[in-house]
User: What shape does this take?
Amino acid sequence: MALFDMLPQAIFNKIALDLEVGDLATLMLASHRLNRLASCDELWIEKISADFGDREHIIDMLADAGVDIAELVYQSTELVPWRHEQLDVVSDDMSDCSSVTSSTSNSYSYTGVGMRCYRDRFVRVFPRSGDDTVSSIKSAETTLEAVKHMLRDGPRASSDVFVEAAYRLVLVQEYYPNSAECYYLWALICFMLNAFKPSLSFLNIGQSINGSFAPLKELAKEVQSIVAGVYGTGKQVPLLDGAGSGPSPHLAKALAIVFQRLDSDRDGVLNAAELSHMVRQTNGQAPPPAVISQIIGSFGGQVQAKSGRMVQGWNLASLTDFYIAQTLDDPSETRKDLAKFGFDPVSLKHA
Assistant: This one.
């Protein structure tokens, strides 16, 4: 025990992360030195993350998808123990924890309350009484249903809706950090925003928690299919950029050539007749005028021609936006269209 008692804080922390919380609590009673080592807040921050999931990682993945919940989380009074606090005093319990610096530190801090934080969180996850269990289950289920209702409009929902829904899932995770459904819904939010990388990250975590949760498998299959089509498999070049919001250089070059070919009057605008020709070439038949009007309104409108006059139709940006939207919905359709314009669907090079 003497050698264990003399370990530096950093080495002790690494060992303690593998201990059960009950064993660690017992170890704290062995000596004053071990009590100080085991009371280090840095240790308990790491242990909470290791045992119950890393909320910082969740916030970062959502931010990558354009959903910023950091302020809601940091200012929340409903989340325990991961509440963002400013330190005013460094307690004696932290004397062996050199990582704590000053009161202006922009990080999670738990001065002298590591054990209490873990205890409180443990009780939330595993309520001690039957009444607490029933209450927690009802609260979590109600919140989950509310989130599903908020997401009913799919990608058409406002950014505020996605932020509020994502934050409410953090509240559920506070009681049930091992809820696979939370990770599924976070992944669904990212998927709706065409943020495929964070969506797959959430799905991977959810499947590691509960691999038999069917919605996770179904969404993972759909996301992986789109990612394979968008970014290519084998020798296929990608259709979109890494963020999934713009064309890849290969697609941008191909669309510039397509635009020039379709712009028969060389005015820099695809008018109704030229767009009708585009649809006929890709779909095999000319669309009715009403469809062309709808297409123009969806991705174009009044655009400026090279002469300076305004023309109803599409410019190159409109054509690009159309193919980005189509690619996110069905990347194989974009490759088929390009093949009909004379491009190799794998390399996107003009045949």
Q: What stands out?
A: The CA atoms of residues 28 and 35 lie 4 Å apart.
